[in-house]
TrEMBL record:
This is Amino acid/amide ABC transporter substrate-binding protein, HAAT family. Belongs to the leucine-binding protein family. It comes from Gemmobacter megaterium. Residues 1-28 form the signal peptide. Residues 40-387 form the Leucine-binding protein domain. PANTHER family: BLR6548 PROTEIN. Pfam families: Peripla_BP_6. CDD domains: PBP1_ABC_ligand_binding-like. Keywords: Signal.
Length: 421
């Protein structure tokens, strides 16, 4: 079955998806590795899920088409949890009963709800660009893997970039932080506040009511604050409205930056020319130039096996899906090296994930090393600028302010060790 955006979003296809994918193959074949991929295709995270999932499934098809990994075939079990915790838990339990060794829910509330279960069941959970930032601490969360720069790291990277652009000092500068008024939107605040004390800038926060489709009262206040830099932090409609209002209020778009949640689709909604100069955190290369994306185009899409619209191949969110799945499968490769004959289990894959070393996915991502202590992978990314046609990197891969980030990580992870919260 070739799963497209259209049939993902139809109720009949979602309901039938689990039965149409080769669910029972894991029990019929000796060398099968099952990933449970329940995500929100229909409610909150629709702005990213289809492209992210398409990238995941295309990369799995690429590797399976080459014979798998050490003779193992990867079986993705895709379903829709609609960001509903009971449905997500049901999908998790179904995956567990079918032998899944990894789950990727791509949802912060779902990931938080599943933490106790994955720790107890020893099933690896990927929380890329979502979930708890303190899950970077593998000693507290041994089966939770962000595998990507968390929100604390992303905010630290942006502050460092602003500092370098302003001659190495932010003393006396004003940074506006426009954010959705949710736990996700507030997540960077502890890091921004600590760095304000360290670097001497003034932080002015402007929360807006979710989902963010009306920010008209916020942005005139931002303009009047005369910020040197603006950081906007939301998702979906909140991002496009923020960009629209920033442009409408005459802000210098070259000094406006978002997190990883800025995409080509956002620019299409606002107007590609209206958003020239906008910055974002880029965890992996975008576009079609990376070798892995070229291989997918020739070996998967070109042979009629693509999981969705060809024009989405190479978008930011598609490449995020490829990035994270490449790391998952590198974990499988390492697990096969350690124990070629398994047995395949969560613990088996965990050993592989924790031994990923200097992995770059053939140039798609910065050098990434996962250890039992660091499940974030080093906290490297780069800053990219919108040209009107594409995101172009304006820095090399770098990490910054990790001392401040890890102080915060350990503060909360130690509390989790004590209380479970």
């Amino acid at each position: 079955m070739s799963l497209t955006r259209r049939n993902i979003l139809t109720g009949a296809a979602v309901a039938a998806l689990a039965s149409q994918l080769p669910v029972r193959v894991a029990f019929a074949q000796d060398k099968t590795i099952r990933f449970s991929l329940p995500m929100d295709f229909t409610r909150v995270y629709t702005f990213v899920t289809s492209e992210y999932s398409q990238g995941q499934r295309d990369y799995i098809s690429l590797i399976n088409g080459r014979g798998g990994i050490g003779g193992y075939t990867i079986v993705p079990d895709v379903s829709d949890h609609a960001n509903d915790q009971p449905r997500a838990i049901e999908a998790y339990e179904r995956g567990k009963s079918q032998g899944a060794v990894l789950i990727d829910p791509l949802s912060t509330p779902v990931a938080r709800a599943l933490v106790p279960r994955v720790l107890a069941d020893k099933i690896n959970m990927v929380t890329a660009f979502s979930g708890r930032s303190d899950a970077a601490d593998g000693t507290a969360f041994p089966y939770v893997f962000p595998l990507s720069p968390n929100y604390w790291t992303q905010s630290g990277l942006l502050i460092d970039f602003f500092k370098q652009q302003d001659g190495g000092s932010l003393q006396g500068k004003t940074i506006a932080f426009v954010h959705i008024d949710t736990p996700f939107g507030k997540e960077p605040l502890p890091i921004l506040e600590k760095l304000a004390e360290k670097e001497g800038y003034k932080l002015v926060a402007f929360p807006y009511t979710p989902p963010g489709n009306d920010q008209s009262a916020i942005w005139p206040q931002v303009r009047r604050a005369r910020p040197d830099w603006v950081m906007f932090w939301g998702a979906g409609v909140g991002q496009t409205v923020a960009l629209t209002e920033a442009a409408r209020n005459g802000l210098d778009m070259s000094r406006v930056s978002g997190s990883v949640w800025v995409s080509e689709s956002d620019m299409d909604v606002v107007g590609r020319d209206q958003t020239v100069g906008v910055l974002k955190v880029e965890p992996c290369a975008s576009g079609r130039d990376p070798k892995i994306i070229q291989d997918i185009l020739s070996e998967v899409v070109g042979t009629g096996k693509g999981a969705g619209p060809e024009d989405k191949v190479g978008t930011a969110y598609y490449n995020y899906g490829v990035m994270i799945t490449a790391l998952m499968l590198e974990g499988v490769r390492r697990a096969v090296e350690i124990a070629p004959d398994g047995p395949v289990s969560g613990e088996w894959l965990n050993a592989g994930l924790n031994s990923i070393t200097d992995y770059t996915a053939e140039g798609l991502i910065p050098s990434t090393t996962i250890t039992p202590e660091d499940h974030q992978g080093g906290g490297m990314a780069r800053i990219a600028r919108w040209t009107g046609e594409r995101f172009e990197p304006v820095t090399d891969w770098f990490s910054a302010n990790q001392d401040v980030v890890w102080e915060e990580v350990r503060k909360y992870s130690e509390e989790f060790k004590k209380t479970g919260n």
